[in-house]
Amino acid sequence: MMYRVRGAILIGIFLVSIISWPRPTAVTYFPHTPAGDALFDYFKKVVTFHPIKKIGGSINISLILRGEIIS
């Protein structure tokens, strides 16, 4: 029965989150005010996906597969 309680809590959190994101609704967390605009700009920075272009200290796996690494 406890899994049903946890599931209900998670569903409630997701429902409130999804309802509060759109800006034109009456229950939004990001109203069209200067403070709401600042919160929305920060939110966009957090949820924006940035692909990884460079990884420091990476290993070229093709060299390992061809046996070109000197032991």
UniProtKB/TrEMBL annotation:
Keywords: Transport. Transmembrane segments: none annotated. Its main location: membrane. It is a multi-pass membrane protein. InterPro entries: Azg-like. It is found in: Endomembrane system. GO terms for biological process: adenine transport; guanine transport. GO terms for cellular component: endomembrane system; plasma membrane. This is Uncharacterized protein.
